[in-house]
């Protein structure tokens, strides 16, 4: 079930898909295992139905709460028409719009929320019914349907008789892009959102600013990007760019989670905001270098409150990522004002207390803004007394280490998001997707209650060596391996060798859809990548 | 401040001053010198003028008048000594050129059109834009020539099929780094995409798909012609006797039937060296290959032959007895390779073989080139010594297996290779004809080829073109390579970043 903080459309149910039955050829070899990530419950038969692009209609059921004019589904029908019939260039409709029919349907009752499997797809002769609690569930179901359709050697389209009940294992399935170490043009972000929807990812974690550059064009503090971006005009995200990303994501059921990481990782902030960063000292004189955000000045908190207020109104999601990782204490230690502040606050020489103090203030700002904070694990490691609704983001260490951390954090009653095993920017030779696939996010010592506190996982594509030139082939299909781990049932997807041909298949589907997803091993796709 | 060091790979001898001349796209002319052996109608240079005009003025679209510019014309005059316009570049082709840029004028002198093409590439890299988009070039003198005559890139089109347009794009990028050999590892175990005129069943049955995953004769001609215009040789490889599984699908009785005990197991091994029909087939195929590919070299492979199938086969064992090879299967492999090399000698072609052939068999024809692919620096240095001591010419690929990706700036390893750092005489060092960057295809196809290749291959390109002393510092090379990478991106090549940073013009594709 998709539930997101992005939406307040109420519950939508019962949208239906229709297509005309022409002939039945019970020869289909295609199986529902072609769907990636693997649906939770499915059955299919060898009975297959041909699909005619010119007689294929999307429609809303009579009982459906969403009807024509529903922005999310109307747009999805147009997208999925092209995805279902990839090389159909019929002159009647290239947009698919005319295929959104208004045919009468068998009525479906509004599904009760207590129903075990709310998202249901049923394909039978001449007809498919797709039922979901929300439009987001319906979008997931359309993706599944599009992957069920296949072509024979003559290019004819078919779908097999199929029953699917599906829902994600974890509610948070994210991808992090880092637009500070390299600027990623908006069109490349949009293309990534397209591909995310194909793997049923639902959170775009936008690590939008960091040390190297500040490309976010703030309304309140325009100097931040004017002076802190790689280029003040060509290497920034305007408010309109940000809205475009959020809107593109929304239509695909993807949340946009902004990260404004502080007090470390803020070098670029200092260029456009004086007195924000701590001046480092060499002996008794400023060295000219700057360290983390200065936690000793009241102006810092005023600035952060104003910035975060803007961020929380620009980004509709109820979460804000506040960073808090890798704070280097040496500059703070060198600064006499910071040391004086430490004395005044009674922190002694324990700078983790200073960091905790800073983060507590920042988290309180977001609480006041009615947002939930996510922070990197460092914050918990230093300071166990953060608000209970804060989500902790694990990024460090080997399996043994992050398992221990999962135990510790959930024991403290905190919600946790796991990124450590999916640092996908770390490339290596060979099939490293197998490592991403075989992660067991709940394999740590803890009670059933503790396990429920793991809200999901995230694939991180840090930007040291990545920009629009190589982002797509580094991300796909390696991220798709994590996508199945986060969506599908672990028992049904425990064999990495069984997953291999399915992922190869899915990768060819991505290529067919124009995504430069790299190969997993020797072989070929029926339709190779045609770009350059 | 702009400097001449912006040219990649670094020219051998250069001077430049801070005096700069504005260039106006509407008053910029290519022309042939009166004394030039090549004149208008020279296919290679006429085409190069058109290409380089767009590369020199990347965002000039032909309409509108440029601001901030005087309308002084700029002429670039090309003089070449030989009218080799309709020929193919070959192993002895001179790539030397001299480029002199002064007020309103540049002179580019070369022995051959191939040298002139290299000089045009250099000139295009000298031109830069200021913040307002105006074009400039500084006063410059360059004498340039390559350190090694063979600077290759291997693409593997058997493990994955690489569509022709992706090969052509790679040739474009190769010219930007002054690579001059496209080593086309066209067939191998997984697939046989080369559509043979003589043996059409090889691709009909051995390609991943007989229609969509093949290189037709016209595709091959297109690749050769695209390469020629850029001064790039196309070196075809038909690797045998190993790495031939896909061949067996379209050519029965070619591969050795493996035995399990006294009965055939159904599996097949390397090419069967015991049958006369094998040599007839190879002679016919190589005759076709040598007429389709104009280069004087043919790569015959010869690597990684697994003896277990030969050992299992009673006919092969009987042949061993008959030939007096005893149980030494390296002798059988040597016998096979000797026959294949002789075929190419008869066809008037020079053979290149992987190092395995020399390791097994030191008595191969002296003009054969040995291709080193194995081992760590210590190992390939020893091999370089051994081979050149035997008087053999050598091509070094071992340090540039660029398909082996890792996290971080591995281009530094490719840059710091010292191809002549092995124990041997000056005569021995001369036998190293160059190096090759290998992009094996296990994990590579058109989706990721370009960012994996560039700019990492460009690091090797400078090692193979430029003077080693002037390019000994990898840290000095770093900002220059970052700069060059941005030029590649500007030219539409998806060259990946080396580290945190940005290009003025980021990649605009998706």
TrEMBL record, chain A:
Pfam families: Glyco_hydro_20, Glycohydro_20b2
Catalysis performed (reactions): Hydrolysis of terminal non-reducing N-acetyl-D-hexosamine residues in N-acetyl-beta-D-hexosaminides; a ganglioside GM2 (d18:1(4E)) + H2O = a ganglioside GM3 (d18:1(4E)) + N-acetyl-beta-D-galactosamine; N-acetyl-beta-D-6-sulfogalactosaminyl-(1->4)-alpha-L-iduronyl-(1->3)-N-acetyl-D-6-sulfogalactosamine + H2O = alpha-L-iduronyl-(1->3)-N-acetyl-D-6-sulfogalactosamine + N-acetyl-D-6-sulfogalactosamine; a ganglioside GM2 + H2O = a ganglioside GM3 + N-acetyl-beta-D-galactosamine
Active site residues according to the UniProt entry: 326 (proton donor)
GO molecular function, one term: beta-N-acetylhexosaminidase activity
PANTHER family: BETA-HEXOSAMINIDASE, BETA-HEXOSAMINIDASE SUBUNIT ALPHA
Assigned protein family: Belongs to the glycosyl hydrolase 20 family.
Protein name: Beta-hexosaminidase
Species this chain originates from: Cyclopterus lumpus
UniProtKB/TrEMBL annotation, chain B:
Primary location group: other
GO terms of biological process kind: carbohydrate metabolic process; ganglioside catabolic process; glycosaminoglycan metabolic process
Glycoside hydrolase family 20 catalytic domain: residues covered: 148-467
EC identifiers of the protein: 3.2.1.52
GO annotation, cellular component aspect: lysosome; membrane
Enzymatic reactions: a ganglioside GM2 + H2O = a ganglioside GM3 + N-acetyl-beta-D-galactosamine; N-acetyl-beta-D-galactosaminyl-(1->4)-beta-D-3-sulfogalactosyl-(1->4)-beta-D-glucosyl-(1<->1')-ceramide + H2O = a beta-D-3-sulfogalactosyl-(1->4)-beta-D-glucosyl-(1<->1')-ceramide + N-acetyl-beta-D-galactosamine; N-acetyl-beta-D-6-sulfogalactosaminyl-(1->4)-alpha-L-iduronyl-(1->3)-N-acetyl-D-6-sulfogalactosamine + H2O = alpha-L-iduronyl-(1->3)-N-acetyl-D-6-sulfogalactosamine + N-acetyl-D-6-sulfogalactosamine; Hydrolysis of terminal non-reducing N-acetyl-D-hexosamine residues in N-acetyl-beta-D-hexosaminides
Keywords (A to Z) from UniProt: Disulfide bond, Glycoprotein, Glycosidase, Hydrolase, Lipid metabolism, Lysosome, Signal, Zymogen
The organism's place on the tree of life at top rank: Eukaryota
Compartment(s) of residence: Lysosome
Purpose of the protein: Hydrolyzes the non-reducing end N-acetyl-D-hexosamine and/or sulfated N-acetyl-D-hexosamine of glycoconjugates, such as the oligosaccharide moieties from proteins and neutral glycolipids, or from certain mucopolysaccharides. The isozyme S is as active as the isozyme A on the anionic bis-sulfated glycans, the chondroitin-6-sulfate trisaccharide (C6S-3), and the dermatan sulfate pentasaccharide, and the sulfated glycosphingolipid SM2. The isozyme B does not hydrolyze each of these substrates, however hydrolyzes efficiently neutral oligosaccharide.
Binding partners and assembly: There are 3 beta-hexosaminidase isozymes: isozyme A (hexosaminidase A) is a heterodimer composed of one subunit alpha and one subunit beta (chain A and B); isozyme B (hexosaminidase B) is a homodimer of two beta subunits (two chains A and B); isozyme S (hexosaminidase S) is a homodimer of two alpha subunits. The composition of the dimer (isozyme A versus isozyme S) has a significant effect on the substrate specificity of the alpha subunit active site.
Family membership: Belongs to the glycosyl hydrolase 20 family.
Protein name according to UniProt: Beta-hexosaminidase
Organism of derivation: Cyclopterus lumpus (Lumpsucker)
């Amino acid at each position: 079930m998709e539930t997101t903080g992005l939406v307040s459309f109420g519950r939508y149910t019962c949208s239906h898909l229709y297509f005309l039955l022409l002939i039945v050829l019970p020869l289909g070899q295609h199986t529902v295992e072609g769907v990636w990530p693997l649906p939770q419950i499915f059955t299919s038969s060898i009975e297959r139905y041909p699909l005619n692009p010119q007689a294929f209609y999307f429609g809303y059921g009579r009982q459906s709460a969403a009807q024509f004019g529903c922005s999310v589904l109307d747009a999805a029908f147009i997208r999925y028409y092209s995805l279902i019939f990839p090389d159909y260039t019929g002159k009647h409709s290239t947009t698919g719009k005319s295929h959104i029919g208004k045919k009468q349907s068998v009525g479906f009752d509004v599904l009760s929320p207590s129903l075990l499997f709310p998202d249901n797809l049923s394909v039978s002769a001449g007809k498919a019914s797709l039922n979901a609690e929300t439009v987001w569930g319906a979008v997931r179901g359309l993706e599944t349907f599009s992957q069920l359709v296949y072509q024979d050697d003559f290019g004819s389209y078919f779908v097999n008789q199929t029953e699917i009940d599906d829902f994600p294992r974890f509610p948070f399935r994210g991808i992090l892009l880092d637009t500070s170490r390299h600027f990623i043009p908006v069109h490349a972000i949009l293309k990534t959102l397209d591909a995310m929807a194909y793997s049923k990812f639902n959170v775009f974690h936008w690590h939008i600013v960091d040390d190297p550059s500040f490309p976010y064009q703030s309304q309140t503090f325009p100097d931040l990007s004017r002076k802190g971006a790689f280029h003040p005009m060509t290497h920034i995200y305007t408010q309109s760019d940000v809205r475009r990303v959020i809107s593109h994501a929304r239509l695909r059921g993807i949340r946009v989670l902004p990260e404004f990481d502080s007090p470390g990782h803020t070098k670029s902030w200092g260029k456009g905001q004086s007195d924000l960063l701590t001046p480092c000292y060499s002996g008794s004189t400023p060295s000219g270098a700057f360290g983390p955000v200065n936690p000793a000045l009241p102006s810092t908190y005023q600035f952060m409150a104003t910035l975060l207020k803007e961020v929380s109104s620009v980004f509709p999601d109820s979460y804000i990522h506040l960073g808090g990782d890798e704070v280097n204490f040496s500059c703070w230690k060198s600064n006499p004002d910071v040391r004086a502040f430490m004395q005044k606050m009674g922190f002694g020489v324990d700078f983790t207390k200073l960091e905790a103090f800073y983060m507590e203030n920042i988290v309180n700002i977001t609480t006041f803004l009615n947002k939930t904070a996510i922070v990197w694990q460092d914050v918990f490691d230093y300071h166990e007394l953060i608000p209970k609704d804060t989500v902790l983001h694990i990024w460090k260490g080997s399996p043994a280490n992050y398992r221990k951390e999962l135990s510790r954090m959930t024991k403290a009653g905190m919600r946790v998001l796991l990124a450590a095993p999916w640092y996908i920017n770390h490339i290596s030779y060979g099939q490293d997707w197998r490592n991403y696939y075989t992660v067991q996010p709940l394999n740590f010592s803890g009670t059933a209650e503790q396990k429920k506190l793991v809200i999901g996982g995230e694939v991180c594509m840090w930007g040291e060596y990545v920009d629009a030139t190589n982002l797509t082939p580094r991300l796909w299909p390696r991220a798709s391996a994590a996508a199945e781990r986060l969506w599908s049932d672990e028992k049904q997807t425990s064999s990495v060798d069984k997953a291999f041909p399915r992922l190869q298949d899915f990768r060819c589907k991505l290529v067919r859809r124009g995504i430069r997803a790299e190969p997993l091993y020797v072989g070929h796709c029926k339709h190779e990548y045609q770009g350059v």
